[in-house]
Amino acid sequence: MQDPFYTKQKRKKETPLLEADAWIDSSLYDFFQSLGNGYTRFQDAMSVFHVYGIRRWLVEIISDAFNFLAIGLVLMTALALSAFQATALGEFNKVDDYSVVFLDKFGNEIGRRGIRTDDSFELSQLPDNLIKATLATEDRRFYNHFGIDVLGTLRALLSNVQAQSVVEGGSSITQQLAKNLFLSSEQTLERKITEAFLALWLEAHYTKDEILKLYFDRAYMGGGNFGVAAATEYYFDKSVVDLNLAEAAMLGGLFKAPSRYAPHIDLAAARGRANEVLTNMVQAGYMSEGQVTAARRLPARHVERFDEIESPNYFLDWAFEEVKRRVADSDEIGFIVRTTIDPVLQSYAEQAVSSIIRENGAAYDVDEAAIVVMEPSGEVRAMVGGLDYGKSQFNRATGSARQPGSSFKPFVYATAFEMFDYTPSTVIRDGPVCIGNWCPKNYNRSYAGNVTLMNALTRSINTVPVTLSVRTGRGPIADMAHTLGITSDFPVTRSLALGVASVSVVDMTSAYAVFANGGLKSTAQGISSITSLRGETVYEHDSDLPRERLISEKTAGYINAMLRNVVTSGTGRRANVEGVPAAGKTGTTQSYRDAWFAGYTGNYVAAVWMGNDNYRPTRRLTGGRLPAMIWQKFMEFAHTNIEIKPLFGVDFTPRQFDRGEETENEQSLELLRPPSLTAMAAQKLLQLNSVISEALLDQQSGIAEIPGDEIFGPVAQNLQVEQ
User: Any idea what the Cα angle at residue 444 is, between residues 442 and 449, rounded to 5°?
Assistant: First the structure.
């Protein structure tokens, strides 16, 4: 009988863990066993390389050589890190300067700036004699080596040791190009190693012809010339494609030491070097002795260089800085720039400045003047930055910031017209006004009572613009000046309404041009287009772009009418041009340090500054005198035999010229030439009579800037000296 509590137990199977344990044990045993066997076989194999005796010493030497080689390679790599960095982007060194040829508005050359260079010629266009002369002298194995001419370097080293001086260079053309493109000219071991690495990089990335073309374009050839094309034009006044053998040999000798062998420095040395180049061509097998005989007998002659172009140098300096800004992102280094300059107007401006200072500068103790002339649309037609560019290259038209005095007041009136419902007929009281403890006075220390804004600006009353500045706030006046074209920063002080700010002549011209063209923006610009030497357009001014309106037509019309009244009835009467609707404003600063006249017609805008570089006060010179006279003289000539355009907001019928007036106008141009002593005396008497008459009129009308007691002294004293 089966026990009811008995349960049949199934027999357990053997666990797989035992199998895994056994597999691991056996695997470890086999691994270590095979490892030991492998090591034993390695020992058996290495025993073959065990050497003894003399062979052991040979192995040790080879082993040490490999060690030193590895150390040397690491060191060379460390020294070449700068080469790796230089070639990381594949960019060449920027040239120290650009080569710029400037043309006037008509396309005629007026001057150059920067270096001279021309890379527009392909290698296939260069004369075969020039290429052979260069290769024979600089690198005969150029087309055979990989960038470093080992044989040439050893040969040069041997020659230098024998001569006990450096008589032959060991650098290949590729190495020289690497130095020109990436490195400086310092002579150090590190630079030579870097140069070698860069030469290898150039050979890997450029063909031989491309390397040679870069070499011909970037090598310095003396006289400020870079490249064979520019050097050919400078030394021989011809195109590089027209070089003869003697000239090619002379150029081929310049690569080594251009400052020593340049023909304009030492013609004898240049010819001696050219003779060596001819010998090198014969030795290299490029030519026979008979073929170079004529070049030896008739060596090259360079042309004498004279400055034949009367360049507007102050303008070119200003335009050159603008060109460099415009082409900063270009890979080109040579450019042709067409400017807005008008050579006739430029000559008028230069002669007007020089004649007035020559005749009257000593009487008023004033040495310098500047003028900028532009059309109302912004094209600069003339710029004079000083009396003599040869003596001082400082451009007073663009680089000098001087206080404009009362010529700043139109900005105050324009602000008031924009902010309030004022007109030129609006009445403002001319009376004492104070801002804190500052109480400005009028020039004649008197007050006129109630005056119109027209009358206040015409007579250059001080209290009225100060009163307006209180009503508008000084901040809006400063904003107005900057909006119209004043780029310099100046403090917004209580005396801002009277022109206590720093401005440049070119900025004042731009600001006044806004009034002339009816309130539209007019920024001075002197560049019409920039092209590369290959004819590719880099920049072109678009004159058809719509102009931004800066002030309303109403405000521009009000200002024009008021400034026209300044010229006809106020402080600027010496600037009046018969038959031309001229408008402008005088300006005189404290202690007579600066005198201004800024004005415009329908054709041109011009601002004139006069003063002394050391801020020495003049002898009571006001803007209504010599500056207005310079402005008037220029405008009189500038408006000869041209269509007189109307002035916006001014009711005036311009004069009309006919052919019969040309003779009279041509005779008037003679006034710009230095007069004889008799003519000067007669002219001074007429001037004195005119000044006396104007002084009496000034006293009667109460005009502030030209009191009668200031006029008699300087002019009469000057006349007395001449007598």
Answer: 60
The sign one gets for the Cα dihedral 550, 524, 614, 714 is negative
The residue ranges of every structural domain in the chain are 52-91, 122-297, 407-501, 677-723
Confidence of residue 159 (pLDDT cuts 50, 70, 90): low
Which residue type, as a one-letter code, is found at position 634? F
CB proximity list for 115: less than 8 A, separation 6 or greater: 95, 96, 97, 98, 99, 224, 225, 226, 230, 333
pLDDT score recorded for residue 708? 32
Angle among Cα 509, 514, 517 to the nearest 5 degrees reads 115
Beta partners for residue 609, in sequence order: 370, 596
Buried b (16+ CB within 10 A) or exposed e, 290-326: eebeebbeebbebeeeeeeeebbbbbbbbbbebbeee
DSSP structure class, residue 386: S
Contact call for residues 491 and 397 (beta carbons, < 8 A): no
pLDDT of 85 reads 56
What CATH superfamily classification does 407-501 receive? DD-peptidase/beta-lactamase superfamily (3.40.710.10)
Q: Is 450 exposed, middle or buried (0-12, 13-18, 19+ CB in 10 A)?
A: exposed
- The amino acid at residue 411 is F
Domain at 122-297: CATH code: 1.10.3810.10
Catalytic site residues?
A: 138, 406
Q: What global pTM score does this model have?
A: 0.73
